[in-house]
Amino acid sequence: MKILIGLGVTLVLLVGLVLLLPFIVDLNKYQDQYRPLIEEALNRKVTLEGIRLTIWPRLGARVTGFTVVEDPAFGGGPFASLALVDVGVKLMPLLSGKVEVEEITLREPLITVIKNKNGVLNASTLGRKGVAVPEKPSRAPVPSPDGPLKILALLAVDRVSIVGGKVTYRDMSQPQPVEYVLQDMELLLQSVHLGESPTLHFATQVQPLNLPVSLDGNFGPLKEATDLDAINLQLALGKTAFTITGKTAGPQAAITVTSPAINTANLPMTLPVKKPVEAKNFKLVVETKGQALALRDLSLELFGGTLAMQGGLVSGSVAPPFNGKLSLQGLQLGPAIDAVAETPISVSGTAGADVSVKGQGFRISDLTNTLEGGGHVAVKDGKIEGVNLLQEAVSILKVAGIAVGEAKATAFSTIETDLAITKGVVTLSNMLMDSHDFQATGGGTIRFDHALNMTVNLRLSEALSQQIAGASPVARLAMKDRRLALPLLIGGTLEAPTYGLDMKGLIGKAQEQIQKKVEEAVGGLLKGTTKPQDLEQEGRELLKGLFGR
Predict the structure, then answer these.
(1) What is the pLDDT of residues 357-376, one digit of tens each?
(2) Taking Cα atoms as reference points, which of 425, 391, 420 lies closest to residue 406?
């Protein structure tokens, strides 16, 4: 009995001692030992309100009031703060003198990411000791080899979780600053050990878009370097699902993103479309090396056709240089134009294009000054809605009572042209347009401000030419080989084009006809086949043929 009582007393004393440990053991004295290591790893000043030992629900430590101070170049507020950090350790390894972290829980983290007026992120020097914040974003930030993930891997953590919290992103580089907030965050990382591939679950709500976002998958295996041999993630942006695969090696990365279907109505961004657009079989393949990004493949099915792009971009500057190639096949032009904008003139048909461009910056002012390129565009079996080219030509000739197709449409079998882009001007050349009643050739320019300066030579069918020429004296000037050839001038803008006849061209045609008749008459005089008194009558016939009187 005495033995049992003794064991009971001992047990009570041990339990009491264990319960008193959090009050007896003062972990705050270790702050000076561990805080410099954290500050060096983050390249930020760190403050802690307190650290105490915990025994329930697991043995470990609790840190309260953990704050990562902001870079002085971005102000004096906190970059990140945590209400509580709970660190749990495994008991059995601890009894043998070995510390193994079982779980780290971050409660209510608050993080503020800022892009200043120069386009520099406050996170750009995180973990980069001795690197000053640049005044201009001339270089992209280089990832630190000693990031938080490496630290966790060296600690061999079984489980890392975030409960609640908020991340605020504030962009001050735009004329109208914008702010997005990730709220109600939840994160779970498991098996964060060197040589293993952690599993990831992350979910949040993006405001003010009210957009649910989730990310699940795995990556690894973790190494002392930041290299990842495999990345396999599933990203959900609202109702849109993406598969992300790839790998990294130091500053280099190769990433592939695919999605079976993307609807613009479900994307968290404002796009230049006036109605929802759906793309199918989306694929994006990019490779990065430092600040250089190579677009190996961007392909998707859109408006019944396929679009493919390749290119490159060097990030880290206000106006990044870029180049690209676009190939378009089988796109239904009518629905595409209708989805982008409402215009008084639209073009339908099946479009194809091959275009190459290079430039610097993406603002309209940058593109006007730097965008250069060229290519070929073709549209088959379509219609120009909003204008009837033949009707415009007939109206200029002041011919009445001639039907030339639909009142406000021009049907065609082919439109194709070469194009060149420079200094805010698109130059069209070798343009060809085939229709039932005419063939058009020519070229001209379209400015980025939509101003038109085009010359189009309309060559009408023989039947329509004879019909118009019989009712218009002016039209006879443009007759050649029994067909009318009308030099049509198109000016104004894409939204409000204007039409007129190139009178110099018509006069030139009249001169050609008169010169031909004169040469015949002179030849007849020299050969003796024409008498001088016959010239007056031939002149009258010539004028009558040209002007109808």
Answers:
(1) 999 988 888 888 999 999 99
(2) 391
Containing H/E element for 527? Answer: helix 503-527
The per-residue pLDDT for range 420-431, each reduced to its tens digit, is 999 999 999 999
Question: What DSSP letter does each residue of 352-395 carry, written as one string?
Answer: EEEEEEEEE-SSHHHHHHH-EEEEEEEEEEEEEET--HHHHHHH
Q: Residue 473 pLDDT > 80, yes or no?
A: no
**Beta strand 240-249 with 228-237: parallel, antiparallel or unpaired?**
antiparallel
Q: Token pair of 247, please?
A: 């790998």
Q: What is the DSSP string of 511-526?
A: HHHHHHHHHHHHHHHH
- Show the tokens assigned to 516: 């031909």
Assess whether pLDDT exceeds 50 at residue 142.
Answer: no
Please give the Cα distance from 307 to 304 (Å, whole number).
10
Distance CA 502, CA 493 (A): 18
Q: Say if strands 110-115 and 166-171 run parallel, antiparallel, or are unpaired.
A: parallel
Q: Residue 236 contacts by C-beta under 8 Å, 6 or more apart in sequence?
A: 212, 213, 214, 215, 242
Please check the confidence at residue 245 and state whether its pLDDT lies above 90. yes
Q: What is the pTM of this model?
A: 0.74
Per the CB < 8 A criterion, the answer to whether 81 and 109 are in contact is: yes
In this prediction, residue 546 carries a pLDDT of 46
